[in-house]
Write the structure tokens for this entry.
Amino acid sequence: PSKGGVVKYELNFIPSEGDRLIVYDLMGGFVLSDKVSLMEQAFVLPNSLAKGTYLVRYKGQNVNQVVRLIVE
């Protein structure tokens, strides 16, 4: 769960150039997109983001995975 603001994440692999994190609401609406960096493993949620459940998609050359993010 997150209170909003900065969301930190941890990778167990080295990201490839061009890998992105994309956040969607549960209806598939776009919330944000951020490039993935080995040095900075965090992204900032918009201040106007409502409480609820969101989907975070890691879209990369070698990895394509979706996880849930709960904003409290």
Remarks:
- The mean pLDDT is 93.
